[in-house]
Amino acid sequence: MLGGRLAGAAIAGSIGTNQPQLYELRLASGRVATSLQPVGADGFAAAADTAAIYLYRRADAGPATPLRVLVDGKEAGQLGPGQYLALNWRDKRRDMAICVQGEQEKCHTFMPLFGTTTFLACAPGSGAAAPTVQPVAAKEGLFQLKHIKARERKPAN
């Protein structure tokens, strides 16, 4: 009976909004909870048949020289300090290879999860060291991208 009330309360709470709200039933606890995946209000959600990948570079990450980004050998863009690239992947049969070129090249090959958002942090190498590309937790990546977007909207002095 309590489970029915919780599900009803969760559904009733979402009726007053214009945006669809995702819920999940946690079988171990029997609780209905909002999905941890962003629903799109912040612009960082992925469709069910697409893997969304955000590659970002913090504003304080090394020299201002932009890094060249390649996805499967094709140029996807340049990544300067305080910038990000939004990438999509739809091929469920192949791994995605993201290469970052500074003075040297560093590649990160992985199979992204479809219907989710993957965040990758990039930093230029110092001196003869290659740039780094590493996955970060969704909470950290979302925080960094919101911070980068907020800096883009701030008027220049």
Write the topology of this structure.
Blueprint: H1 2-13, E1 23-26, E2 31-34, E3 51-57, E4 67-71, E5 74-79, E6 83-89, E7 96-101, E8 105-110, E9 117-123, E10 132-136, H2 138-153
Parallel strand pairs: 3-9
Antiparallel strand pairs: 1-2, 3-6, 4-5, 4-7, 7-8, 9-10
Structural commentary:
With about 160 residues, the chain is α+β, with helices and mostly antiparallel strands. The chain has two domains: about 1-35, no CATH class; about 50-155, Immunoglobulin-like, CATH 2.60.40. Helix content is about 20%, strand content about 35%. It has two helices and ten strands; from the N terminus they run H-E-E-E-E-E-E-E-E-E-E-H. It has helices at about 1-15, 140-155, and strands at about 25, 30-35, 50-55, 65-70, 75-80, 85-90, 95-100, 105-110, 115-125, 130-135. The protein has a four-stranded mixed beta sheet, with helices on one face. A four-stranded antiparallel beta sheet has the order 5-4-7-8, with no helix packed on it. The radius of gyration is 19 Å and the shape is globular.
Descriptive labels:
alpha+beta; Immunoglobulin-like; 157 residues; globular; 18% helix; 2 domains; four-stranded mixed sheet
Give a quick rundown of the structure:
The protein is of the alpha+beta class and 157 residues long.
> Can you count the beta strands?
10
Order of helices and strands: HEEEEEEEEEEH
Sheet-strand content, in percent, reads 35-45%
Cα-to-Cα separation, first versus last residue: 59 Å
Any low-confidence stretches, pLDDT <50, length ≥5?
Answer: 9-16, 36-42
User: Briefly, what CATH class of the largest domain?
Assistant: Mainly Beta
Structural class designation: alpha+beta
Give a short account of the largest sheet: 4 strands, mixed
Indicate the radius of gyration in whole angstroms: 19 Å
Number of domains: 2
- In one word, what is the shape? globular
Mean pLDDT: 78
Biggest sheet strand order reads 6-3-9-10
**How many helix segments?**
2
